[in-house]
Amino acid sequence: MSYRILVVDDSPVSRRMVCRAVIMSGLDVGEILEAGNGQEALDLLAKSWVDIVLADINMPVMNGAEMVKEMAKRDFMQVTPVIIISSEKSEKRMEEMLGLGVHTYLGKPFRPEQIKQVIGQILREREEASRG
Amino acid sequence: MASAPSSDALSRAVIALLADAAFVFAEPTTAPMPAGDNPLVARLTLELGERWELYVCVQEKLGQMLAANLLGTESETGEARAAASDAVGELANILAGALAVDLFGKSVVCKIGIPTVAIEPARAVGERLAKSACRVNLETEEGYALAVALIAQGGT
């Protein structure tokens, strides 16, 4: 079974780096969608099923924290795991995002192995839940 | 008011970030940015009761090299040239995250702005950099120049 991933970042270079890390992970990723801010991500999520969202925080129009709060209001989006990848390293910000239900918080610069590890963990958790 | 990191500390942070995030190796230099070469400049603000501007200036060729390294392509490709500004902005963004912790500590949330990037006249850049007590000039092993400054802008 292949999975669909959504990468949300206002920087095309940053999106491309995350996409490369996902592709290099060797995981069975069927499609990678991209959005330039939280609102674009919500619009995409409303139209297409996505298995995992990887998102920045600091974006114009709608930031990553607002996006996560909006996802939590929608039944079909609140189950979608969100991985935050941000340059912000404040412990308070990390706690705040994890408190909003974010699965994992990664700091920039990230290593491709970190992406592989986290996505792999989420997919394993999902498979275990579906068997359980 | 939070005090700016020393220029040495800024230098260490920038050198480590360049190596870690973009595989670019640089050393401090006393040489200023080349006067005849208008650099790419990324600016962004850090705010927490007070406001700082992070100012990252790189030679255009270095911007292309940063983009190429981040994207896994060659410097001379159209893709790297097109992504140079964005790569410099992303570098400034990551650096801002590290400096925010240095300035304000890990236990508070500092508002980091969205980077803006433009080619600016070399002379104006030199004057702007000269006003900052916290600045560093670096040269990469390929001979490209970059300068980074953190400029206090008062309370908000």
Report on this model:
- The complex is a heterodimer of chains A (132) and B (156).
- By secondary structure, chain A is an alpha/beta fold.
- Chain A is 47% helix and 20% strand.
- Chain A has one domain: Rossmann fold (3-Layer(aba) Sandwich).
- A five-stranded parallel β-sheet of chain A has the order 2-1-3-4-5, with helices on both faces.
- In chain A, helix 1 (12-24) packs across helix 5 and helix 2 runs parallel beside helix 3.
- Chain B has a single domain (7-155), classed as 3-Layer(aba) Sandwich (Chemotaxis protein chec).
- Chain B has helices at residues 7-22, 60-71, 78-104, 122-130, and strands at 26-28, 40-47, 50-58, 111-112, 116-119, 134-140, 145-155.
- The radius of gyration of chain B is 15 Å and the shape is globular.
- The interface between A and B is medium-sized, with 23 and 29 residues.
Describe the sheet with the most strands of chain B: 7 strands, antiparallel
In terms of structural class, how would the helical and strand content of chain B be classed? alpha+beta
Radius of gyration of chain B: 15 Å
CATH topology of chain A: Rossmann fold
- How many structural domains can be distinguished in the coordinates of chain B? 1
Q: Rg of chain A from C-alpha positions?
A: 14 Å
Roughly what is the average pLDDT of chain A, rounded to an integer?
93
